[in-house]
Design a protein that fits this description.
Elements: E1 12-14, E2 29-30, H1 32-46, H2 49-58, H3 62-65, H4 82-108, E3 117-120, E4 124-127, E5 130-133, E6 139-141, E7 146-149, H5 153-161, H6 166-185, H7 187-196, H8 200-229, H9 236-246, H10 249-257, H11 270-283
């Protein structure tokens, strides 16, 4: 992905080295990182993927499983590695691109786009949706309209999932910004209100619709990024598609516990995530992402 000479967004809050809360969850927190929690959180913390899948399917508070491991974390002066400095610049440029694309798209809809703040953190962070550790991966909090990311996540993403490449990383950020777009359009609030009145199984289905729409919006962003700047290189789209594949609920559950439990899916299968990203890429329209108008079995 060619981003040389591109502007870097200033809508950034750098909290690295400040420490933070560890309690997972909180209303309104969403993201691609939440999918990876299911397959990776306990692996990172305890080395046991199977336990993480069991906890996710039963709604267990994962804090209890890893309690004490982040307790007592002290704030310290943080010195980013050269790799993190490079990734920070990259993330700022991708965020700037989403600002350009979504500002134009909202104008076409007769609306005004208010960009999210990208929060860099290290280790753990306290958001408007509660606390989270870096193991949770990037996430969006609708309560404070921020996207949170520990940049070391990209190294873990490469090492643990084999998902690599600059456009793979851009897809992750664009997915989280997709949740922000949902929030601004009112879709996210309505979905959360519905989920609060549902059984866990039905709420999981709505969650899948939310996540697949964010994947589609990431595709919409990619479509217009290419149209505006021609920045995509050969292999870039495949990087995003490969990433979508390895964060599908079925892929992660199969990898972690050897079998899948479809009623616990809350982000979508690998096939669905690829399908909806491609749909956004091909159409380049927000209207293409109405996952809530499609029967669940046809997503």
């Amino acid at each position: 992905m060619r981003l040389d000479g591109r502007r870097e967004s200033t809508n950034v809050d750098d909290r690295r080295g400040r420490g933070g809360g560890f309690r997972l969850g909180g209303k309104g927190g969403l993201g691609i990182g939440a999918a990876i929690i299911i397959g990776l959180l306990t692996y990172f913390m305890t080395g046991d993927l199977g336990t993480a899948f069991q906890a996710a399917s039963q709604g267990t508070d994962l804090t209890e499983m890893v309690s004490g491991q982040a307790a007592g974390q002290q704030d310290a002066a943080y010195e980013p590695t050269p790799e993190e400095k490079e990734m920070e610049s990259f993330a700022r440029k991708v965020l700037a691109s989403t600002e350009d694309v979504w500002t134009a798209e909202f104008e076409r809809m007769g609306k005004t786009y208010e960009p999210p703040t990208l929060v860099f953190f290290s280790g753990a962070v306290q958001s408007g949706c509660g606390g989270a550790s870096a193991s949770a991966g990037p996430f969006y909090c609708s309560a404070d309209q921020c996207v949170y990311i520990d940049l070391s996540f990209f190294s873990s993403m490469r090492q643990q999932l084999g998902a690599d490449g600059d456009f793979a990383y851009a897809y992750v950020i664009a997915h989280e910004v997709g949740h922000h777009v949902q929030n601004l359009l009112g879709t996210l609030g309505k979905a959360h209100a519905q989920m609060a009145q549902m059984s866990q199984t039905d709420a999981n289905r709505v969650s899948v619709q939310i996540e697949l729409q964010a994947d589609c919006f990431a595709g919409v962003w990619a479509h217009h990024e290419q149209a505006m700047y021609g920045s995509l290189e050969e292999g870039d789209l495949q990087e995003a598609i490969s990433t979508a594949e390895v964060i599908g609920d079925d892929y992660l559950q199969k990898k972690g516990q050897g079998y899948v439990v479809p009623e616990t899916f809350n982000h979508g299968t690998s096939h669905q995530r690829i399908k909806w990203f491609k749909r956004g890429w091909n159409a380049g329209k927000v209207s293409a992402g109405n996952t809530f108008a499609v029967p669940y079995d046809e997503l």
